[in-house]
Each structure stands twice: as structure tokens, then as C-alpha cells.
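Side project, low priority. Logging it here so it doesn't get lost.
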Amino acid sequence: MRFLLVEDNIQLSRAVVDRLALDGHVVDHAADLATAQAFIDVTTYDLILLDIMLPDGDGRDFLIAHRGNKDKTPVIVLTARSQISDRVSLLDLGADDYITKPFDFSELEARCRAVLRRQGGAANNVLTFAGVGFDSLAGSLRFDGQEVVLRNREHRLLEIFFANPGQIFSKSHLMDRLFSFSEDVSENAIEVYIGRLRKKLEGASARIETVRGLGYRLVEAQ
């Protein structure tokens, strides 16, 4: 998943980015609203983590504009305000959830998972296709009575395919989902990860198919 973190506290931002990266997420960090908008103008995000008090404005105004533009990207607000009325107002403005500072990183991760599940209409962390179970929380595959553990980027790449079986994804789209603006990588990296996933799916009823000139898709093995 690709996240946008809008937070001006550099120490906190580094900690959040590092923690989410351990789960294989791609996180772009914006220290102000102008940078956040510039990022949103050139790519899409699966989730936005939004601070309220920022150097160039109020995160609530950003949230109002975000929803006013019919953007359905889920937003979790990071707030130091603990009054119930403050939290209720954030939800009324369009936030999907909030977390009060200081927070435990495990709670932040759990809230991210819960919001993403709701966004995808899923009740749990396991997606199934062609008899293969993909556990997005554990980062593992299950088929034919065996469990296959995935590395972080393998995990996030397969998450894209299992959420949209049969859909073709171009290399450029997958690059956008797997790597942040600060990472200098080529599209060959996608070929490497696809190769690794194919090996881990050997013997399964699902496979990643190359659609020449277009990209890749998850299909049922014939």
C-alpha cells in the first residue's frame, strides 16, 4: 500500500515512516499542506495520515477540500486533541478515523488495517483466489496444506493482485504502488519481484500471467 503522511514533526514522521516500512508499505512524507497537495496531484494513495496543526494551514481545511473534490481516499487524523467534541467534528468533516497523540505504533498499524479493510469491503485479513489464501496481516500464502512466507515487497505486490484478480497492472502502476518518490529504482525491479512471487506460487492454482505489452494479472492456472 502507498500512504501519504502529512506531519510537520520530523522526529515523529521518521518514526512513523520507518515503522510502516517494516510492514512493506510505501510512505511519502509531506511536512506541510502545499507539499501534500503536490504529491496528491501526481499520484494516488491508499491511505492518508493527516496532522491538524501544520505550518501553512489547518489540516481540517485540507480534509474539507479533500472530500469536496469527491476524493474517497481514507483519512486517519493524527490529533493531540482529546475532547470528544473535537474528535466527533473530525469524523463529521470526513475523517475515517483518528488517533490521539502520543500513540502506540501498534495501535496506528491496527487502525490503518481496519480502515483499509472497510475501504475494500473486507471483514478480515484473508483474501482467497483459486484455492489460494493470502493473509495480508501475516504476509503469507496458504495452499495445498502449506504456508509460504512473503518478504515485505513481495507481500505488498501480491496484495495488489489478490485485491483485484484478473485485472491487468502495468509496470508503471506497480512501480507507483511499491516505491516512494525518494527511491531511485527502475521498472526492472518489478520483473525481479514478479519472478520471486511466481516461484512462491509454484504448485498453486493461481499464477501471475504476463500480458504482453500491457503488464501482469493474477489468473487461475489451467
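Brief comment: The radius of gyration is 18 Å.
Revisit when time allows.
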